[in-house]
Design goal:
Blueprint: H1 3-12, E1 17-21, H2 27-36, E2 40-44, H3 48-55, H4 66-74, E3 78-81, E4 92-95, H5 110-120, E5 127-131, H6 139-148, E6 160-164, E7 183-187, H7 190-201, E8 207-210, H8 213-244, H9 248-256, H10 279-288, H11 295-321, E9 330-334, H12 349-359, E10 363-367, E11 373-375, E12 381-383, H13 388-394, E13 397-400, H14 409-415, E14 419-421, E15 436-438
Parallel strand pairs: 1-2, 1-4, 2-3, 4-5, 5-6, 7-8, 9-10, 9-13, 13-14, 14-15
Antiparallel strand pairs: 6-7, 11-12
Length: about 450
Amino acid sequence: MTIKEELIGRFKTREARIGVLGLGYVGLPLAVIFAEAGFNVLGIDPDVRKVESVNKGHSYIQDVPTDQLAKLVKSGKIQASADFSGLKDMDAVSICVPTPLRKTGDPDMSFILSATEELANYMHPGMVVVLESSTYPGTTREILLPKLGSEKGLVVGENLFLAFSPERVDPGREDWTTYNTPKVVGGITQDCCDVATAWYEQALKTVFTVSTAEAAEMAKLLENTFRMINIGLVNELAIMCERLGVDVWEVIDAAASKPFGFMKFTPGPGLGGHCIPIDPLYLSWKMKSFNYNARFIELASEINTNMPRYTVSRVMDALNDHGKALKGSTCLVLGAAYKPNIDDIRESPALDVIGLLKNKGAKVSYHDPYIPSLLTHENERMESVPDLMAAVREADCVVIITNHKDYDYPAILEAANLVFDSRNALGKMGKNNPKVARL
């Protein structure tokens, strides 16, 4: 029996031991899915607080209920550790670490490099490693393969199986989860793809294979580039409609009535989350090495990056129309999360809007039912106001940045002196209302 056949057999009998590097928004849900499928899972993270929380059965990820995690921890199916030496006993390892951008706009590969170097210390024949972190095409082959394969005397496709499978986590969703969202897998070799696919098929509903790791890496970037560019388009449309005196929300709803050939995107105060604002720029950065300028990506990024500033300029105009200057005015920002109904603040445009309002001399507070406190870009700690409606009544302008469903919008509108609605959260209530300005 070949090493490949033996490893696939261990997956089918649930004898294979699973390691997950990184216990964040991607890693913890994945660890839970594997554990629920009957595998023994070791989650490894250098953050001791996360390790302790997991081992106590307490979830810090909104998409993983504490009851679900506690049950798996109690049964022994999930354990967490900050000690990487546990990797020596693993048959399969999934790498789920962050891949942010540097301030210069190039990918920060330090987390992937660190995880790979730690894993390399414990590599042994008969392991499958899958990178899930979003990155540029070529990362798996150019960075992981040498460190995990040739430098360790392992032969890819024979006794080392290496693949890329992009995470597709959308925090807060209940219809599409880690379990039922189709999983794209591409290997360094076909045997690598076969082994990784056999592994994921034991726990996930659908696995979609592609011919290479690069194809899988590129597929992830296409998904988020598609969204980024279309959001950039409607953001620019909002700017154009404002100058034309046309209601952008009415225009979008009218276009969306077409049953074919149109997909609805909506404008907003900027892009947020770990993927859409960042992933396309990996591709743009990579293409520079081929002397190619990814013009669509660069233009969409420019438009989207400017939206917080445009939003603040519109708030300034709205206050001016009501006889007030932005400087010295009290502004209450509603919603700090990057999208509705979640507690994720990564890359949230609310942080940019708060900073810009403060720089213009406004007195800024915020409220978010999911985020009790936050750290601004200026490293200032802010607390969510304790009494929402009191803060609404006191504010010169309420600025809706994240349209959480928890908010009682009719009550907010009635109590507010002025509302700037960047998300059309007020809907028809806000249209032609003298107290409301809309993006």
